[in-house]
Write a structure and sequence with these properties.
The chain has about 375 residues and is an alpha+beta fold. It contains twelve helices and 15 strands. It has three domains: about 160 residues, 3-Layer(aba) Sandwich (Rossmann fold); about 60 residues, ATP-grasp fold, A domain (Dna Ligase, domain 1, 2-Layer Sandwich); about 100 residues, D-amino Acid Aminotransferase, Chain A, domain 1 (2-Layer Sandwich).
């Protein structure tokens, strides 16, 4: 069952806290002189657009997990409602998307695609986008082909190599008998997972014996080839970008590892992202904006924009990079990156003055460029209110 979020018509005045936040946002936008401002259409009144906020809600999850997901999704829904959009939350609780979306006319809606999988179907994020494409829906974020590409780390690494974008040296292995690797430390990852699935401190290997054991573990545990990479033990930056044609970079965020003394622990593991009580989650700090020189920021922007374009990202994405001895390495490309309120992407947008609703508004407007109705009414640039 979908739930409609109705906030745009509220007559209650904003709280002092919200007014102060809005004033700070406007001031930061002026101070930053438009930094991070993507090209979006302006000739659209948000109240004209119905947004379907599509998200997965697996019935096999615990009651607590379902409530947490619904709460986070509702925050985005309410933010879009405050921005003026008629927003309907559409949970995906089955692999049958026809049953979920059959009552919605593609000409009358923009889908905010926040659906990461079909319940019970592994590696199915791209299938959601494919369904939307086949049914003629306009939706936010990457196409099905690009989501599928990003899921396959081998293909992404090949694409980066072919494009001359530096990425750590790598190999793919289906069994340990093929291993010929001499660079240590190395890191071993599942080749077709995301969100750091399969990555923990034991992913970092310092000897050939450890490497072969980890490769064997990944193949058996995850039923897929193992990706071996040169472990770049340096600064890690998460760089959010948005836009189409004209791409803009938000302030890079640094994952700060100084509290972690274990050499193997200086990386973003599954625990650090999804287990708040874990030592890694508590000891990895997000520094925003990352302390960077003007030249470092320029180089990061150039590398990340190139990776964004080469991978075919659309509307928004996050590029994860590492720096070692001043050299930048792309370690991951995340189209449709997580935009929950506490993520580096949203914190970076907030830093330069965008509320959560304004961020969502921009993403909807970028998608509206592609809509057969609203896409005909656009301008080259979106001007933020003062």
């Amino acid at each position: 069952m979908s739930e409609e979020i109705i906030l745009a018509g509220e007559s209650k005045p904003p709280s002092r806290h919200l007014r102060d936040h809005d004033n700070r946002c406007a001031r930061r936008r002026r101070e930053n002189n438009g930094t991070g401002n993507p090209q979006v259409p302006i000739n659209i009144c948000p109240s004209e657009i119905s947004v379907l906020l599509l998200f997965n809600l697996d019935p096999n999850w615990s009651t607590h997990e379902q409530a947490a997901v619904f709460d986070i999704t509702s925050q985005l829904g309410k933010a879009l409602g405050k921005a003026g959009y008629r927003t309907t939350l559409v949970p995906v609780t089955t692999s049958n998307l026809d049953g979920v979306l059959s009552n919605y006319d593609p000409l009358e809606h923009v889908v905010f695609n926040w659906c990461e999988s079909l319940p019970g179907v592994q590696h199915s994020e791209w299938l959601v986008a494919e369904y939307l494409e086949q049914r003629g829906f306009t939706f936010t974020g990457a196409s099905s082909a690009i989501i599928a590409l990003a899921q396959d780390k081998c293909r992404i690494k090949q694409l980066l190599d072919e494009s001359g974008i530096l990425t750590p040296r790598w190999q793919i292995h289906n069994n340990v008998s093929t291993v010929r690797w001499s660079r240590f430390p190395a890191i071993v990852k599942p080749s077709r997972e995301h969100c750091s699935e399969g990555i923990d401190r034991n992913a970092v290997c310092t000897t050939e014996a450890e490497l072969k054991n980890r490769i064997r573990y990944i193949i058996e545990r995850h039923q897929q080839p193992a990706l071996v990479e040169d472990f770049i033990d340096g600064r890690e930056l998460h760089v959010s970008l948005w836009g189409n044609g004209s791409i803009d970079m938000l302030p890079p965020a640094e994952m700060e590892f100084s509290l972690i003394k274990d050499d193997r622990g200086r990386l973003c593991t599954y625990e650090s992202k999804f287990m708040p009580e874990s030592e890694q989650c508590q000891n990895i700090k997000t520094v925003l904006p990352a302390p960077l020189s003007k030249d470092e920021r320029r180089d990061i922007e150039q590398v990340c924009k190139s990776a964004y374009l080469v991978a075919g990202c659309r509307d928004y994405a996050r590029i994860d990079i590492r720096m070692r001895d001043g050299v930048l390495y792309v370690i991951d490309i995340n189209p449709n990156s997580d935009i929950s309120p506490d993520t580096s992407t949203i914190l970076a947008a907030d830093f330069v003055g965008y509320t959560y609703g304004e961020f969502g508004d921009h993403i909807v407007r970028l998608a509206a460029h592609r809509h057969p109705v609203w896409g005909n009414r656009r301008s080259n640039k979106f001007h933020m209110p003062k």
